[in-house]
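Hi R.,

As promised on Friday, here is the backbone we talked about, encoded as structure tokens. Could you run it through your design pipeline when you get a chance and send me back a sequence?
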């Protein structure tokens, strides 16, 4: 409108500016133009310092809110969008009063949507005292609640003048990007193994080894993908054994029987192997698969 702007829009704009400043200290950050905004406010590549340079790291996206509260998806196109994220997706809650932001991982989204398809999906960011809580879905599939848990990061804007703090927060963010990335890649490969930390602390690295939430789901529609993945993984395992141990090392008592069993499995499951895999096994290992 000429000469004015709605109060709510202005508050949202301020929240995005605060979030952009904080996130841009951790990542190369591109603001999505308002005319192109379909849910992601920022497209980011983690900035990793090496001497006097910043290298581009893994990619992720961010949606910004000016207060903590439920985020609801219930229209058909909204559900389609949130269920099919192809990159790690973080929720950022910007607090103008304290000039701080909270970042929430959405890794646990897959533990819900791959299990049941509800008519409404609700993302629920928690407080810093909330532990991991599994998704809840109403029996009639009217609603599914995805609990995001505590923030993975809570950053005050004035902390970011300190390069050590920036490096620390970027390293923590990388861990969460990698957790989400692995789950997403597995999902699109038809392997519904979802792994994430059951316990963690805001602003602290994910403990290694961490106490994991492990969810395994299966879908008959993924049969062909699983067959293909099996063939490629088994081929890779066999070739890596040869590269690591050599032909003589494979004949030792410690691994000899395992190698024989793996070769037998490859022969029995030959229908899972494409011609290229069979060629690799023949040339690299000397294993003929008909």
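Update: got your reply. Pasting your designed sequence below so it's all in one thread:
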């Amino acid at each position: 409108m000429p000469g004015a702007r709605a109060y709510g829009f202005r508050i949202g704009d301020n929240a995005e500016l605060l979030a952009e400043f904080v996130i841009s200290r951790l990542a190369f950050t591109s603001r999505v133009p308002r005319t192109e905004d379909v849910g992601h406010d920022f497209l980011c590549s983690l900035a990793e310092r090496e001497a006097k340079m910043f290298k581009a790291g893994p990619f992720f996206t961010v949606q910004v809110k000016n207060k903590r509260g439920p985020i609801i998806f219930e229209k058909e196109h909204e559900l389609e969008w949130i269920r099919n994220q192809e990159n790690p997706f973080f929720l950022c809650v910007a607090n103008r009063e304290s000039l701080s932001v909270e970042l929430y991982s959405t890794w646990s989204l897959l533990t819900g949507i791959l299990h049941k398809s509800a008519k409404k999906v609700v993302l629920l960011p928690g407080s810093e005292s909330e532990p991991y809580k599994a998704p809840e879905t109403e029996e009639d599939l009217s609603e599914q609640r995805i609990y995001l848990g505590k923030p993975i990061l809570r950053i005050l804007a004035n902390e970011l003048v300190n390069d050590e703090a920036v490096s620390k927060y970027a390293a923590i963010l990388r861990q969460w990007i990698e957790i989400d990335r692995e789950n997403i890649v597995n999902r699109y490969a038809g392997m519904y193994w979802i792994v994430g930390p059951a316990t963690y602390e805001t602003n602290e690295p994910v403990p290694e080894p961490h106490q994991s939430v492990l969810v395994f789901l299966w879908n008959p529609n993924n049969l062909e993908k699983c067959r293909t993945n099996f063939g490629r993984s088994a081929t890779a395992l066999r070739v890596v054994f040869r590269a690591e141990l050599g032909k003589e090392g494979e004949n030792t008592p410690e691994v000899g029987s395992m190698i024989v069993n793996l070769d037998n499995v490859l022969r029995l499951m030959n229908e899972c192997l494409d011609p290229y895999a069979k060629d690799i096994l023949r040339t690299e290992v000397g294993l003929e698969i008909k």
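One thing I noticed while checking it: The longest strand covers residues 53-65.

Thanks again,
M.
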